[in-house]
From TrEMBL:
Keywords: Endonuclease, Hydrolase, Nuclease. Signal peptide: none annotated. GO terms for molecular function: endonuclease activity; nucleic acid binding; zinc ion binding. Residues 373-425 form the HNH nuclease domain. Pfam families: DUF222, HNH. This is HNH endonuclease. It comes from the Bacteria. Belongs to the Rv1128c/1148c/1588c/1702c/1945/3466 family.
């Protein structure tokens, strides 16, 4: 029997043994087991289960590290991941285990950092994190704690003194396992993260690289995986980039009078009542306007010859009934029909008719969007977002069809008004009313803000405001004329 065959038999033996372990655990545990335990017994069982889980974590990481070693880029087309049709070791683990990409990358990170290697001359090479490797083997440290130690200390590896780095690793492992004089109890993963970050700052405070060079290396912006209907973002901005973004946000979140058709008392009352968003929500909406403005500016690279455009797909029947969801390319989450209508109003619509089998039967022409000339004219008329008290300028606004396309509304200056991203997104549920009277937009506040429901012209255009002031203060003879 060849070596290759022997290794296959060995792997099959391990898999069979693990299946026996799984069956034994299944026999011991069932869904009703926790309910029959007393409080102390329940907590003891939770701890025992976690101990078993940590032991499994150690071997999950070890196997992931071996997969990563055999999938090294240096191996070219012969690397394991490529031979199995995957781009990386993490993707291969995803396919085999059905875990998430983030969990696969975490196992690869820990497995590679705790894996002993072999030098060019065949000599053994210790693992990058030997203390952590020893604790993992015994099941004393879980995968989450191990990943925290590797991630935080890894940021300082190129600048920290090796002896100090070794001390930091050993003390963090002691904290995680509850051993040593400085660790009377085991630290939780969150507590360990705080301590690891403190060590990282200590190890890197006198690094040989200037702060600016380190910042350039560590800068980044990340879009996370969807959860609870939102896409989390994280990252690190260079100070000057953060300063520019903060200034943009401050400029549009600072209090400023609005609503030119109101009296001073009404305007003050509106400023207090009309804004219901938190500061964080307002920052989000300003950022949304920045993204939209950049996308339509024409100053960014095109995709397929077109400006960066998000494709949203939705069934026509769902738009009619108001039930269902839409999909936007680039994100896994479905989007609401309200969001789809908002994007249709802003970007137009193209009808694609499919048969039951999915074949394209007809492809309609895109509905015409407001042209740049129309946008300039509407900007001169409206000045900025029509909602009183809103300070978003015209350049950051979207054009809203007062009468929707679906109801026969024309793409004409007499049917388009400027609204910021937030007020456009929420116009159907906010209570604000908008109508056109002889081509001039009028606004009606929500009932809770103006029980009388009065319609008033609205604009922030300097020239129109000047005309209005001149008219209001003109002599009776001139008004009559």
């Amino acid at each position: 029997m060849s070596v290759g065959d022997g290794s296959v038999v060995g792997m099959a033996g391990i898999a069979e043994a693990l299946e026996q372990v799984r069956s034994a655990l299944h026999a011991v545990l069932d869904s009703e087991a926790p309910r029959g335990l007393g409080d102390d017994e329940l907590l003891l069982a939770v701890g025992a289960l976690e101990s078993v889980g940590r032991l499994l974590d150690a071997h999950r990481a070890a196997f992931a590290g071996e997969v990563a070693e055999r999938s090294r880029v240096e191996l070219g087309a012969g690397r394991l991941s490529a031979r199995k049709g995957c781009r990386s070791a993490a993707e291969l683990l995803e396919r085999v285990t059905q875990i998430s990409g983030s969990e696969a990358r975490r196992r690869v990170l820990v497995g590679s950092a705790t894996r002993a290697g072999t030098g060019l001359a065949g000599q053994p090479v210790p693992a990058p994190h030997p203390h952590l490797a020893a604790a993992l083997v015994t099941g004393s440290v879980g995968l989450d704690a191990a990943a925290t130690i590797v991630r935080e200390l890894g940021r300082t590896r190129t600048v920290a003194d090796p002896a100090q780095l070794d001390v930091a690793e050993r003390e963090l492992v002691d904290q995680a396992t509850g051993t040593g004089d400085a660790a009377p109890v085991r630290a939780s993963a969150d507590e360990l993260a705080v301590q690891a970050r403190a060590w990282a700052i200590f190890l890197d405070q006198d690094g040989p690289e200037p702060d600016d060079e380190r910042a350039m290396r560590r800068r980044g912006f990340r879009l996370g995986r969807a959860r609870d209907g939102l896409i989390p973002v994280s990252g690190e901005l260079l100070p000057e980039v953060a300063a520019k973004l903060r200034r943009l946000l401050d400029a549009h979140l600072s209090p400023r009078s609005g609503g030119s058709f109101l009296t001073d008392a009404e305007r003050a009352d509106l400023a207090v009542q009309a804004e219901t968003r938190t500061t964080e929500q307002q920052r989000h909406d300003v950022l949304a306007a920045i993204v939209d403005t950049a996308a339509r500016s024409g100053e960014h690279p095109t995709i397929g010859g077109q400006a960066p455009t998000v494709l949203v797909s939705v069934r026509a029947s769902d738009l009619v009934t108001g039930h269902g969801a839409a999909r936007a390319d680039g994100v896994d989450l479905p989007i609401s029909l309200r969001a789809a209508r908002h994007m249709i109003c802003t970007g137009g619509i193209q009808a694609v008719v499919l048969d039951d089998g999915g074949r394209i039967l007809s492809l309609g022409s895109p509905e015409r969007c407001f042209t740049p000339h129309q946008r300039r004219a509407i900007t001169l008329r409206d000045g900025g977002c029509l909602i009183p008290g809103c300070t978003v300028p015209a350049a950051w606004c979207e054009i809203h069809h007062v009468v929707p396309d679906a109801h026969g509304g024309a793409t004409h200056t007499d049917n388009g008004v400027l609204l910021c991203w937030f007020h456009h997104r929420s116009i159907d549920i906010s209570g604000w009313g908008i109508r056109m009277k002889h081509g001039v937009p009028e606004i009606r506040p929500p009932a809770w803000l103006d029980p009388g429901g009065h319609w008033r012209p609205s604009t922030t255009s300097p020239t129109r405001l000047a005309d209005r002031l001149e008219l209001d203060h003109a002599s009776p003879e001139r008004k009559t004329a």
